[in-house]
Automatic annotation (TrEMBL):
<dbReference type="InterPro" id="IPR004360">
    <property type="entry name" value="Glyas_Fos-R_dOase_dom"/>
</dbReference>
<dbReference type="Pfam" id="PF00903">
    <property type="entry name" value="Glyoxalase"/>
</dbReference>
<feature type="domain" description="VOC">
    <location>
        <begin position="7"/>
        <end position="124"/>
    </location>
</feature>
<dbReference type="InterPro" id="IPR037523">
    <property type="entry name" value="VOC_core"/>
</dbReference>
<protein>
    <submittedName>
        <fullName>VOC family protein</fullName>
    </submittedName>
</protein>
<dbReference type="InterPro" id="IPR029068">
    <property type="entry name" value="Glyas_Bleomycin-R_OHBP_Dase"/>
</dbReference>
<feature type="domain" description="VOC">
    <location>
        <begin position="137"/>
        <end position="255"/>
    </location>
</feature>
<dbReference type="InterPro" id="IPR052164">
    <property type="entry name" value="Anthracycline_SecMetBiosynth"/>
</dbReference>
Length: 258
């Protein structure tokens, strides 16, 4: 596996309507969707220009009964899935799915940090580097943003488990600070305090688009909802935070061309 311990290497949408979600993200981001080869379940792959970016599957009935709603989850590469899962539980996290193998794909586990934010860890079975997170290409994940109840504790947790480093910060007034996350010399995202009375702690993943206004129109025109933006951020680009028609939250980032 060419990805390093602590890299984001995959993104997965759990949804209540896979067909509708495939259509929505195709219209908004330009992804093509295909069935995963050799899968014994209806697992689909989001891709662009022959590069895979993420996965799509129906929200398991057991997860829905437990209160889980449509959501995007990230996979973090680790050197040893079992050891990492054990360490996360010892550090106050939770194990939702124990380590298991996906034949030909890799070994993975679904976990949660001490603030309750769910994510996967994975050790790939194949050589090669995932480009699902690639800040140089459109239609790939560009930014990983954690909104949490305790930013300082979350940063300490992820540093201990994945080696992520605390970067610079931007002040956000009463909301505290927007603290960047660095990994192997690259700024991969940020941590912030969740909005009071807002959604529960969660990761939001921002996918890059070629024109933020065109993408925003595609969101609302295809049944999604924009909750914030378009708003300018450093780098002369704009972001929106939105939810798809099934309620999964996601972000978009790109230039304004008009």
């Amino acid at each position: 596996m060419a990805n390093h311990h602590g890299d984001f290497l995959w993104y997965e949408l759990l949804t209540s309507d896979a067909d509708a979600a495939a259509h929505f993200y195709g219209a908004v981001i330009g992804w093509q969707t295909r069935a995963a080869e050799g899968s014994d379940r209806d697992y689909r792959i989001f891709g662009i220009d022959n590069e895979d970016v993420g996965g799509l599957m129906a929200l398991p009935a057991s997860a829905e009964r437990a209160g889980m709603r449509p959501t995007w989850l990230g996979y973090v590469a680790v050197d040893d899935v079992d050891a990492t899962a054990d360490a996360i539980v010892r550090a106050g996290g939770k194990q939702h799915m124990p380590p298991a193998d996906i034949p030909g794909v890799g070994r993975f586990a679904m976990l949660a940090d001490p603030q309750g934010v769910t994510f996967y860890v994975m050790r790939g079975a194949r050589d090669g580097t995932s480009t699902a997170f690639d800040q140089s290409q459109f239609a790939h994940c560009n930014w990983n943003e954690l909104a949490t109840s305790d930013p300082a504790a979350a940063l300490a947790f992820y540093k201990a488990q994945f080696g992520w480093e605390k970067g610079d910060a931007m002040p956000m007034g009463e909301m505290g600070e927007y603290r960047f996350i660095n990994h192997r010399g690259q700024t991969i995202g940020a941590v912030m305090r969740r909005v009071p009375d807002g959604p529960p702690p969660a990761w939001t993943f921002y996918f890059s688009v070629e024109d933020i206004d065109v993408a925003a129109k595609a969101v609302t025109g295809n049944g999604g909802t924009i909750h914030y933006g378009p708003a300018e951020v450093p780098g002369s680009v704009f972001i929106i935070v939105a939810s798809d028609p099934q309620g999964a939250m996601f972000g978009l980032v790109g230039p304004r061309k008009a």
